[in-house]
Specification:
The complex is a heterotrimer of chains A (106), B (708) and C (210). Chain A contains 3 helices and no strands. Chain A has 106 residues and is mainly alpha-helical. Chain A folds into 2 domains: 65 residues; 36 residues. In chain B, strands 1-2 form a two-stranded antiparallel sheet. Chain B is mainly alpha-helical. Chain B has 2 domains: 488 residues, Up-down Bundle (Cytochrome C Oxidase, Chain A); 44 residues. The relative contact order of chain B is 0.10. With 210 residues, chain C is mainly alpha-helical. Chain C contains 6 helices and no strands. The longest helix of chain C is centred in the first third of the chain and has 38 residues. Classes of the chains: A mainly alpha (106), B mainly alpha (708), C mainly alpha (210). Chains in contact: A-B, A-C, B-C. Chains A and B meet through helix 3 of A and helix 9 and helix 10 of B. Chain C: It is found in: Cell membrane.
């Protein structure tokens, strides 16, 4: 293998290892929050949500190799657009169903 | 012997003719008649194919083809066949409602329920969707200078899945009943408690097949536009039809998933006793409405955006003018596409959420009228100062502008939750959405057929019959649907098979008259196609540019060769072909030709479609062996295909050169036809550009630069 | 276009296989779009679950009564290591085109994935037999089984796909189509891991915490 490839491979291997370590830490942290009752109530939910968000970003960055490099910006825009659609659909659904639920006769 | 293992729940009495024998009535006779037409139609097709020896060409040249042009044509063929059925159903419903004041009419309530359910389901999923999909498939790659879509085989598979869904709906005419739950199939009515039997299952699986097909099409077309544009075709040089295709594709990618989720949940409720939408045990039927319209509202724009693209092409071409406000049209399309995901609640304002929720979605709905308004002004301003030719597509366009604006205004009314509460579930709503979809989508597709037919088949459609058909469709639509606004405000509810108010009768009679005119329009349209095929010699326009067109699709012969472009074009502006004609550099021979790789035909897609259809049929009738076997076979076909290596063939450069040089020579040798002669047999598809008129003598039409 | 330029999100073949790298651009972009469409499907299932896990309990058990966090934690680790193993298989393919190396890593990925599916089936078995919590018991459980079941079905089809790819690697070797299929399977596999983050957080941890 030419030296440039060895270097490239080292970089990409490191990416997977970093991803694995970070994911392990975050996962263990999330389970610890609940298992050891570190937080409770709304704080627990917010903390868990934040940990999940960070871990999703870690996976996207280190396993799926998404970065904000210029050369594939068009594709990336479409993928990022998905996030907007997800937010609209999920928050809209939860909002509407919750609103209907609280207005119903018990 | 346990027959249920073999035939599932199909019994002798499942066949539509059994009803007529056991319980004769006019309603049953009509059902049997429809079943007979389906059976006889299929039989006649088989006999025709056998007698003419067309089985082999049908299989070899069409069903196994992965060429985007043939796939597009097949989509539109499905759309037209299904349109014939659904428009007849519409006329039957009109007749029933007219006949059923203070009496039962001639259809049973159940039969009427099936009619409005199949009419809606077919018109949306198996007329409008295949029509726009076929059109996008055919035209878009030609407009961006590509040889095919990104994934030709996937494209054929999408087609076959859609066809499988359409066949399933046709089968429901003969075997069993269809759903009576409307095209939106709201539970709990469509749950197993209130709708036992196969009807809702037919709806679920037909719609699911169509929806999977559409998702894959959206993916395919979006990748094509992103990755296969010819050199120089930057995003902001793309024709507007391509822009609307891109936005529609993106909507398809995201909007179909909620529908799939909703149909899967409904199926699990019905087949496995789950509690997503049931009345008790924690089910929530309001979530169905939520999920369905998460899909349903973007769906409206999936349908209308390609039609907006068609209107943009038509108005520019027949006004002989560059489209007014290109950039604003592009941004308006994008705004509509994004906003369409944020208004779905306006379909169920009355479901009980608080006024604040309704208000927010009402406001979002009104906002979506703004970019649409921008588009209307752009089209109007394109006509200002142009030389307008009142050809059939242009007539449709002007009619569209007038009637669509009225429909849009009733839409703004309905966007106000207070008004919506008053007319919810009445014929006012029915009038409104037909007012958007018929002049917008359907007439857009008809205009597109008139406009691109000569490109597809190499001869124009008969103009006189086209106009005659238009003059039936346009007033027919007004007569059929404007009375429904009045009826709705008088309180007439939708999907009602029997009335007690005699005041409705005159309005219903007017609507019936409209339905008759629409049927006449359709008959004239079929006649127009038949006559045009017969007179194809006089109407021939093989040189490809009968309307003095603007985008790349008009620069190649009609019908286009398998490879579309002998050499991929290199564009440097919007309206590249028009600019080339203006500069006198159209029809130049390229410097060199190269071999072209095209995908081979394959049986993969039709086999997948066949097994998908069998799978769905097995599920509908609980024929488990069939469902399991077909499902396994679908994947066996997919896996077997992944081992195939010899999937492409090469067309040698010499073949391409011979064909293309012959076309170019003919184009150069033929005198260009001026616009006032474009509807005569002089029009061989070589246009004398409007842009050069008044500068007579600058470039004689025959001359062209020989080599680059 | 420089060879090292990235043409699509995800692991690129730039540098080692220029021809495959260019062929990948269109195919991989298409697959990304498919993944996004799939993600929207999961989003809708998550939203439904979010509503029904609170409002759809009826007479059935509550989330905290039926979930086993230890099992969920082990499943999370299995899927995470499986994802990591696939990453190493891809490096083996990209830099060495070494059939044996790729097959070994694929085998490990598949075993971890199969263990994940097995554990999930065991979870279902325990819920149904010991907690009287089948999907028919309530809206909450219907939504739970559909969400986790859809994910498990994705993982299972990924496993079938993996077997086919192993056969193709062994029989055909690293032609461009085979490489592109492995790259797509890798994206699919990593994406399922991302979806699982949502499941263990919003289903299991939220269910027990609230």
């Amino acid at each position: 293998m030419p030296p440039r490839e060895i270097e490239d491979e080292g970089r990409e291997r490191r990416s997977y290892v970093i991803g694995l370590v970070l994911a392990l830490v975050l996962t263990t942290g999330a389970f610890a929050v609940v298992g050891l009752n570190l937080l409770s109530g709304g704080a627990a939910l917010a903390g868990l949500g934040l940990l999940a968000l960070i871990q999703a970003v870690v996976h996207l960055r280190y396993f799926l190799h998404i970065d904000l490099q210029r050369s594939h910006r068009d594709d990336l825009l479409l993928i990022l657009f998905t996030v907007l659609i997800l937010l609209i659909m999920v928050s809209g659904t939860i909002w509407i169903l919750y609103d209907q639920h609280v207005r119903m006769m018990p | 012997m346990n027959w249920e293992l073999i035939f599932g729940q199909i019994k002798w009495t499942s066949f539509v003719f059994a009803g007529m024998i056991e319980n004769p009535s006019l309603s049953e006779a009509i059902a049997s008649g429809a079943g007979s037409i389906a059976v006889l139609g299929a039989l006649a097709t088989v006999i025709l194919l056998t007698v003419k020896g067309w089985w082999v060409p049908l299989w070899r040249d069409w069903l196994t083809s992965v060429d985007h042009k043939k796939v597009g044509i097949m989509y539109i063929a499905i759309a037209l066949v299904m349109f014939a059925r659904a428009v007849i159903e519409a006329a039957l419903m009109r007749a029933q409602q007219l006949a059923a004041t203070e009496g039962a009419g001639f259809l049973s309530a159940d039969h009427f329920g099936q009619l409005f359910s199949t009419h809606g389901t077919i018109m949306i999923f198996f007329v409008a969707m295949p029509f726009i999909t076929g059109l996008m498939n055919y035209v878009m790659p030609l407009q961006i200078g590509a040889r095919d879509v990104s994934f030709p085989l996937l494209n054929a598979i999408s087609l076959m899945l859609t066809m499988a869904g359409a066949i399933l709906i046709m089968v429901s005419l003969v075997v069993g009943q269809f759903s009576t739950g409307g095209w939106s199939a709201y539970p709990p009515f469509t749950g197993i408690d209130f709708s036992p039997g196969e009807g809702v299952d037919y709806w679920i699986w037909a719609v699911s097949l169509g929806s999977i097909g559409s998702t894959l099409t959206g993916l395919n077309l979006a990748v094509t536009i992103y990755k296969k544009r010819c050199p120089g075709m930057s995003l902001f040089r793309m024709p507007l039809f391509t822009w609307t295709t891109l936005c529609t594709s993106i909507l398809m990618i995201f909007a179909m998933a909620p529908l799939t989720a909703a149909t899967v949940m409904l199926a699990l409720d019905r087949y496995a006793g789950f509690h997503f939408f049931t009345n008790g045990d924690g089910g929530n039927m309001m979530n169905y409405a939520n999920l369905f319209w998460l899909f349903g509202h973007p769906e409206v724009y999936i349908l209308i955006l390609p039609a907006f693209g068609v209107w943009s092409e038509v108005v520019a071409t027949f006004s002989s003018k560059r489209i007014y406000g290109y950039t604003s049209l592009v941004y308006a399309t994008m705004c509509i596409a994004v906003l369409s995901f944020a208004v779905w609640l306006h379909h169920f304002f009355t479901m009980g959420q608080s006024a604040n929720v309704n208000a927010i979605f009402g406001i979002a709905t009104m906002i979506i009228g703004v970019p649409t308004g921008v588009k209307v002004y752009d089209w109007l301003l394109t006509m200002v100062g142009g030389r307008i030719r009142f050809s059939t597509p242009m007539l449709y366009h002007i009619n569209f502008l007038l009637t669509f604006i009225l429909g849009g205004m009733t839409g703004v009314l309905l966007a106000n939750p207070g008004v919506d509460f008053q007319v919810h579930n009445t014929l006012f709503l029915v009038a409104h959405f037909h007012n958007m979809i018929i002049p917008g989508v359907l007439f857009g597709m008809f205009a597109a057929v008139q406009f691109w037919f000569p490109k597809v088949f190499g001869f124009r459609l008969h103009e006189g019959l086209g106009r005659a058909s238009f003059w039936c469709f346009a007033p027919g639509f007004l007569l059929a649907f404007f009375p429904l606004y009045w009826l709705g405000m008088m309180g007439a509810t939708r999907r009602t098979y029997m009335w007690s108010n005699p005041d409705y009768v005159p309005w219903l009679a007017l609507a019936m008259l409209g339905a008759g005119l629409i049927l006449a329009g359709f008959a004239l349209m079929v006649t127009q196609i038949v006559v045009s095929v017969r007179q194809r010699a006089q109407l021939a326009a093989p040189l490809g540019d009968p309307w003095d067109g603007r985008a790349l699709e008009w620069s190649i012969p009609s019908p286009p060769p398998a490879w579309n472009f002998a050499v991929l074009p290199n564009v440097s502006s919007q309206d590249p072909f028009y600019e080339a004609k203006k500069a006198g550099i159209a029809y130049r021979s390229p410097a060199a030709y190269e071999d072209i790789e095209v995908p081979r035909n394959t049986a993969t897609a039709p086999l997948i479609g066949l097994f998908a259809c069998a799978w769905a049929f097995g599920l509908v009738w609980h024929i488990w062996w069939l469902a399991i076997a077909s499902f396994v076979l679908i994947w066996v076909v997919v896996i077997a295909r992944s081992f195939a290596t010899d999937t492409e063939e090469t067309i040698p450069a010499a073949t391409v050169k011979a064909a293309n040089e012959a076309f170019l020579a003919a184009a150069r040798a033929t005198p260009g036809v001026t616009r006032d002669r474009e509807m005569t047999s002089d029009n061989k598809g070589r246009a004398h550009p409007e842009a050069l008129e008044g500068r007579a003598g600058t470039i004689a039409s025959g001359t062209a630069v020989e080599a680059l | 276009m420089s060879l090292s330029e990235r043409l699509h999100p995800g692991l690129n073949l730039a540098g080692t296989d220029p021809e495959g790298h260019e062929a990948a651009e269109e195919t991989l972009f298409g697959f990304w779009i498919f993944l996004m469409s799939d993600l929207v499907l999961f989003a809708v299932l998550f939203a439904t679950y979010a509503a029904m896990s609170v409002q759809g309990i009826a007479e059935g058990p509550r989330p905290a009564e039926v979930f086993d966090l230890t099992a969920a934690f082990v499943e999370t680790l299995l899927l995470l290591f499986s994802s990591f193993a696939f990453g190493l298989a891809m490096l083996e393919m990209k830099y060495r085109e070494n059939r044996r190396g790729v097959l070994v890593w694929l085998l490990l990925t598949g075993l971890l994935g199969a263990a994940f599916v097995g554990m999930e089936l065991h979870d279902y078995y325990v819920m149904i037999t010991q907690h009287a919590a089948p999907p028919q018991a309530s809206g909450f459980l219907s939504a739970y089984y559909l969400l986790t079941g859809t994910h498990a079905l994705h993982v299972s089809s990924g496993l079938v796909w993996m077997v086919i790819m192993a056969v193709q690697v062994a029989l055909i070797g690293f032609t461009t189509p085979v490489k592109l299929r492995l790259m797509r399977l890798a994206l699919f596999w990593h994406m399922l891991d991302v979806v699982w983050i949502g499941i263990f957080t919003f289903v299991y941890l939220y269910g027990v915490a609230s």
